[in-house]
Protein: BTB domain-containing protein
Amino acid sequence: MTSQYFDYRDADLVLRCSSSPTPLDFRVHKCILSAASPFFRDMFTLPQAPHNSDEGDELPIVEVSEGSSTMEMLLRYVYPVLNPTIDTLDDLTVVLEAAYKYDMVVAIETLRTLLLLPRFLEETPTRIYAIASRFELEEEAKVASRYTLKINVLDCPLSEDLKFISAYQYHRLLDLHRQRAKAAQELLHIPDTVKCMMCNGTHYGVFLPPKWWKDFEERAKEELRVRPTTEVIFSMSFLAQSAQTGCERCAMSVLEAHWFLTKLKKSMDELPSTI
Structure:
C-alpha cells in the first residue's frame, strides 16, 4: 500500500513503515531527503536492496520503525507541501522524536514553535517542560517553567514524558518553585501608611496592621507556597475574602491600599520566573 501524499512517479526511493498494521510505502526522492537530513544523505552512500513492485519498478527500499502517520507528518515538513496539522502533544512528541532521529533541522525548528503554542502551555506546562528538557531545548524549557508556576507541580497528573528527563532537570523545576515562593513570601510586609480607620493603629509604639492584612498575608503565603505567582492572590475574589474577615471599614481600607498592592504585585512579578 502506498501513501496518497507521497506516491511520486519520478521517485527513486521507497520508505516503508513496516511497524503499522498495514505496511505503508512512501515513494520519495533521495535529493530532497539528502538536502533535509544528513542521516539520509550518509545512508545513501550505502548499497540498498532493490524493490520489485507489481509495476515493474526497481527502487531501493529503506524500512523505518516509525508509524505511517508519524512518517507522513514528518515528510510533509521537508517537502514543498502544506504542513500537517498537529493537534495533540502525543503527535507532536513522536514527530519531534523522529525529526531528531533523522536530523531534520527544518522540521525540528517548526516543531519547536508548535511546542510553545498557548493551548499546550496553558493546559500541560509540565509536559512541555519535560519534552523540552528531553530534547535539550533550553529556551522552550525556560518558557514552560514559567507557565508551571501557575500550577501545583507536585499535584499534576503523572506524565510518561517525565520518564525521559533526568533528576537534575526535574530538580531545577522544583527549585524554581521553592526559591520563588520563598522570595515572594518575604515581600509580604505592609507599611504603616496602610491604615484602617477602625481596626489598626499603634499599640505601645508597635504598628498594628489592619485585620484584612493579617488574613491576606496568611492565605497569600499558603497560596504562594503552592503556586508562586501573583495571579490568584491579587484577584478581586481573593482580596474580597480578606476584606470580609476584617472589620466594617476593612473593605474601604483594601481599596485605599490599591497603590501598595500594585507595587507589591510588581515586585513579585519581577522575581526570577524561569529555570
